[in-house]
């Protein structure tokens, strides 16, 4: 069982590194959108007690807000 946990942990780390590598060519607006969606998803999950609809809704709202933010 402990071996399965180690394999899952290594797979998670590998996926995280691949995800970060995919962000290297993003524009500032794309980065803001992704950050907004992530923060919105966490906020939606916290506010609704982990509800799927709350998480997805928070991600959508956060993504829109992040997209509209101008950092110039």
From TrEMBL:
Record flagged with keyword Signal: yes
Residues spanning the signal sequence: 1-21
Domain of life: Bacteria
Record flagged with keyword Cell inner membrane: no
Domain (Glycine zipper 2TM): residue spans on this chain: 32-69
Coiled coil: none
Alphabetically ordered keywords of this record: Signal
Listed GO CC annotations: outer membrane
InterPro entries reported in the protein's UniProt record: Gly_zipper_2TM_dom
Protein's name according to its UniProt entry: Glycine zipper 2TM domain-containing protein
């Amino acid at each position: 069982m402990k071996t399965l946990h180690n394999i899952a942990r290594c797979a998670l780390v590998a996926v995280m590194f691949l995800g970060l590598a995919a962000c290297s060519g993003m524009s500032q607006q794309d980065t803001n959108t992704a950050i907004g969606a992530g923060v919105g998803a966490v906020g939606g999950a916290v506010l609704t007690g982990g509800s799927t609809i709350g998480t997805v809704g928070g991600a959508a709202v956060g993504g829109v807000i992040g997209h509209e933010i101008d950092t110039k």
